[in-house]
Specification:
Distance between the termini: 46 Å
Structural class: mainly alpha
Radius of gyration: 23 Å
Strand content: 5-15%
Order of helices and strands: HHHHEHHE
Protein name: DNA helicase Pif1-like 2B domain-containing protein
Helix content: 25-40%
Largest sheet: 2 strands, antiparallel
InterPro entries: Pif1-like_2B_dom (IPR049163)
Number of domains: 2
Organism: Araneus ventricosus
Number of helices: 6
Strand order of the largest sheet: 1-2
Shape: elongated
Pfam families: Pif1_2B_dom
Length: 136
């Protein structure tokens, strides 16, 4: 009803899907596929990170379903930001005197874990990159 003239075909397609007129195979219109398939490039390529303001970043987000993908995206976004990267490493150790615990949970294993809500073992940052601090 409120669609632009250029969007009426897409609206009609959605109505046909909702009314089951299309069948089991749905072919999405070409406008559903962006010309650039990289969401990071789509969101951040027009920003000059050397003097970015919070207002320019407002409303730009990529949602992921797991920590591994989130870390991958953060690393790629960090490449857009000019400047030197600083790496901060976490300290992981077993607080147990029992040698069996030391063998069960070696430091390499602890460094490979990234728990929900915690940063990765190697946290990479640059000047002017966004970080979110959470407090439990």
């Amino acid at each position: 009803m409120r669609a632009l003239e250029s969007e009426r075909d897409f609206g009609a397609c959605l109505l046909d899907i909702g009314e089951k007129k299309i069948g089991s195979m749905i072919q999405l219109p070409l406008q559903c596929y962006p010309s650039i398939q990289d969401p990071i490039h789509q969101l951040y390529s027009d920003i000059d990170f050397s003097n970015v303001t919070p207002q320019e970043l407002k409303g730009r987000a990529i949602f992921t379903v797991n920590n591994e993908r989130s870390i991958e995206i953060n690393i790629k976004v960090l490449e857009f930001i000019p400047g030197n990267e600083t790496v901060y490493k976490a300290v992981d150790m077993i607080m147990s005197e029992d040698p069996h615990d030391q063998l069960t949970f070696p430091e390499e294993f602890l460094n490979s874990l990234t728990s929900t809500g915690l940063h990765p073992y190697k946290l990479k940052l640059k000047i002017s990159c966004n970080i979110m601090l959470l407090r439990n």
